[in-house]
# Entry
Amino acid sequence: MYTSLKYIKGVGPKKELLLKNELKITNIEKLLNYYPYKYIDRTTFQSIKEAKQSEKIVQCKGYITQIRSEGSGTKERLTAYFTDGDSFIDLTFFTGAKYLKKSLKIKEPYILFGKTKKFGSSMSIVHPELTLQKDQSTLGSLYPQYHTTEKMKKEGMTSKSLAQIITNALILIQKDDVENLPEWILKYRDLATKKDSLIGIHTPKNYDELNRAIYRIKFEELFMNQLKVIYLKIEREQKYKGNVFTTVGDKFNYFYQYNIPFELTGAQKRVIREIRNNMKTGTQMNRLIQGDVGSGKTMVAFMSALIAIDNQFQACIMAPTEILASQHLESILEMNQGLNLNVKLLTGSTKVAERRQIHQELEDGTLDLLIGTHALIEDKVKFQKLGLVIIDEQHRFGVAQRAKLWNKGVVPPHILVMTATPIPRTLAMTLYGDLDVSVIDELPPGRKPIITKHYFDSKREKINEFIQNELNKNRQVYYVFPLIEESEKLDFKNLEKGYEQVAEDFPDYSISVVHGKLKSQEKEAEMIRFKNHETSIMVATTVIEVGVNVPNASIMIIESAERFGLSQLHQLRGRVGRGADQAYCLLITGDKISKVSKARMQTMVDHSDGFKISEVDLELRGPGDIEGIQQSGDIQGLNLSDLSKDSNILTDVRNIIFKIAEKDPKLTNPANNKLLKMLINTNISLFNWSDIS
Ligand code: ADP
Ligand code: MG
# Structure
């Protein structure tokens, strides 16, 4: 399977290079993993009489009785008379006459395939595909179609010739053992063998065979993906012991009894319990908390920190921006009344003297809870006994940064990652399958749902009237624009032009402007001005997407909303609805938008649940496009599998692997040898895989 392409019949150095350069196909395995994007159904045949009834794609059996030529040289054109013994149809060729005259065979059984076209009163097919019936068997009856590039086409490598090469490759591997799943799994789920699935996907004889092949390949992809993910988790749990937080102590209980400003939601209670159970087991916690904007993650973070502190450990909370870190500090100081924890803030702008003090208190253990930005992970920052790290708005932090935190204690601290970007369950399992996931799927009671409306640009007057009305009530408004500069000829509103328009439309109100090109201090200063209601309107790009809390801002206007991803729109919408007033989100789009864009706007209007929205997003866009995924690294090895549709296979696969992990955790059973081999090929090193085998 890993052998070179040049062993395949019909592949010389030129084609080998072309495949490598154009499709990154460098060996037979990769070639066979290049699947068709669609199939043309050639399982059925029409009579020529039927074929001539209307213009359509047809397939007929028959033979050529005669070939006629008109014109000469490059202008020569051929007409072949084709019959099934009952009726006749003309086949017309405007090019290639010289070659065709030599290669077309009279009276030999052919399969004719092409589109019928009416010329005057007669029906004919221009440039049909003709395959000798005796050659047909190797190609199968559902014809595969492969994507090819311009360059490939130019050099004569079409979908059809690629199909031929792949067919030849399949013949070449006929005798090889290519199976990579254990025999017992194939039996257990009645899966096609690897070889049959490759034959079935490239040269299916019928839909049954094709579907069986597709199922097996998806199963294998998801199985390999999850085997890695789950064993990675097992590896980590074995390798790293975690601090054991045995008690729920005084601070936690005091807070819960006297200080807590509201009743926790059921989801908050459940998630806190999950975290507590996780931290008392002796394995290191790596947990992802997903909770929609406003679901109350800060409270969960704080109460988890209390558990760490009650067990004589220190904790820290890391936020992506200074303003968010300050916001956390503010709400945590409020909750800290009567608890008297030593809580401090460390950011890029912390003064040297203060910084020195913080370093001191961290090292002598008197600082209980440190809140801050990236500044927390600098090497200078040393904790005496760091027990828990909480990372807020995870997608701003890279994996490498997370890993750095592990070195901040002899035993790595428990890690809690909190994200407001909900990802569908299936995606979470493949992307974060090595983390445990808790979901806060409930909002605090009494929230008024945000009213979302979609307006076309042409309704500008009505929109402005509405905004004026809200401004009159002393509310504040966000205006979000997609681009900072006019990008080429795109007719999207840009921020500067947008700002001018807003200033003209609402001359009586002061306006803040925030965009990605400002220095972070300028940005924060402007946000604070808005937060303090020194300005009434905030014109911004998506930099305001994450976290800032301005309860009096109740209107979110998103311009050129069709330019944004659904999760992004949802995230932006989450900036409003934080106060007592009814909040609104207006999505403004061009008058002429695509069907998909319309569907996306409607999704926002209809749904307020971030998980629901992310599922629609996955369906409409596919996982590669979903925000945050690119940064998180690709989902490896998923080629045919569709995470929005194959969740049943994914769940099945996970259950099987969990059972294997339980019964044969080190994969020493010979029946699982193929799985062991597979893991050896990855970098999972826990059990010193290669020693065992
Ligand atoms: P997010 O999950 O977006 O970080 P926050 O933690 O900022 O949400 O919480 C949003 C708001 O809801 C805060 O003002 C917080 O005090 C409030 N809140 C959190 N939990 C509850 C609850 N159980 N009941 C009422 N209000 C709550
Ligand atoms: Mg938050």
